[in-house]
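Forwarding the complex inputs:
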Amino acid sequence: QSVLTQPPSVSGAPGQRVTISCTGTSSDIGAGNDVHWYQQVPGTAPRLLIHTNKNRPSGVPDRFSASKSDISASLAITGLQAEDEADYYCQSYDSSLGGRYVFGTGTRVTVL
Amino acid sequence: EVQLLESGGGMVQPGGSLRLSCAGSGFTFSKYSMTWVRQTPGKGLDWVSDISGSGGRTYYADSVKGRFTISRDNSKNTLYLHMDSLRVEDTAVYYCAKDGISSSGGYELDYWGQGTLVTVSS
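Prediction (whole assembly, two chains):
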């Protein structure tokens, strides 16, 4: 099964904007499958942050936004806050034979 | 309120077996596909297996195919993962998660359990 590629880490000062990229292939994101994003604070379970490319579930602050294009997607955090320090994962669907859910490699966001 | 509560993790020797359970509440269990995702300590998330709402369709990652069996009992609102022939590399926190939209799966995972740790070691 394939894996979506993310940068290992990004960092920013409080109030700044950071972005996280998520690159797939023609079998997953490039096949037109939706991208979803999860936040995982160390020691806790993942939490759905963005679904269906750009939609925020109830309770997710609007400083989180996302987009998708061709074989990649990106997550942006504007007005970075200390509580945003966590790991972030993208996820899509693998349309190839035997594939199903495919996750990104994960990105650690550090608030300086 | 949607809740997922895993149980059954623990330490087992290589070649051994273990059964994980995930009890769901706060939603109509049979209407949604359910998924097991694992996370090796310090590493990323890996899809393990998922099952349709009715239980009629099951899917497995190549790494566990033939060794793990996913099932569900909709009368008990419970998801299971039976793991046989366990290997050291199966050591991970195992999460159950609910599909956000459908009984067929393949969409976002909108609720996750707290995870249960499986350690395979001699």
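The longest strand of chain A covers residues 86-93.
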